Amino acid sequence: MAEPTVRVSGIVLSSLVFQHVNGDSDVEGLILGESKFEEQITISDSQADNIHIEEVYNIQKHISCLKLNEFYDAVGDVNIDAVKKILADNKEEDVIGWYRQRRNSEQQMTFREKVVHEKLKTSLCNPHMIFVLLTPSRSTPTGSTHKMEYAAFTSRSRLFVNIPVLVSNLGLLESPAYWKASAPCSAGGYRLATSRYSSNFFSSNGLLRDVNDVNAMSDAVQEELQRACRKLEESERLVESLQNDVLTLRRKIREKKSEEP
């Protein structure tokens, strides 16, 4: 049986987290992308070749609903017309799942979410779909730093399993192997932006141009990010110190008032 894996870019995941942190309530929506099977062949001394099949879900875009329970009712029945309205100009076959952002909850699917997931698979005639759950864990007292937990689930014979999520970012920590190109993004804005600036990075034969400049830009971004993190840490330590000073002064004032006759 193929092992499922979810791949998402740091930009898409950041947009989901940003939407959740700046919202006042739970949010849910549809996930667009491409699911495909990849064949990996490894060769070892003991065995000529070992074929490994991996089912990869490439998340390229998300569409949030205006309200909860917008495309399904109280018992979990999916309204396909509401799904089409949410998708607008996007295609139904591009839907590879849906997501939910919950507050003050654990990383587990509820019974209703499981029912909706199964009925969404039936309504869209897509047996390969995923469910992504995002929940905030904690934030600093000043509210400047948030920690978000995320997980992806899929069902096999109505048995829901947790599948790994790989986030593609500027710097990949995994070992450099044969990297496969991600699936093409179906978003019109993405295609417009890439077509506008592709000539700056690719030559007429399709090869990368000025790779060293791109790497230098990436290093500069990392340095700026580290510098900003150090400044943020210093500011939070300063705030913590000021809060301790305020608490100390308040305690002294209370003690002084209690000593007065």
From TrEMBL:
Keywords, alphabetical: Coiled coil
What InterPro entries does the annotation carry?
Answer: BRISC_Abraxas2 (IPR023240), FAM175 (IPR023238)
Coiled coil residues, start to end: 218-259
Q: Which GO terms describe its cellular component?
A: nucleus
> What's any GO biological process attached to this entry?
mitotic spindle assembly
Q: Which GO terms describe its molecular function?
A: microtubule binding; polyubiquitin modification-dependent protein binding
Transmembrane stretches, start-end = none
Q: Name one Pfam family in it.
A: MPN_2A_DUB_like
Protein name stated in the entry:
Abraxas 1, BRCA1 A complex subunit
Species this protein is from: Gasterosteus aculeatus aculeatus
Which lineage do the record's taxonomy fields give for this organism?
Eukaryota, Metazoa, Chordata, Craniata, Vertebrata
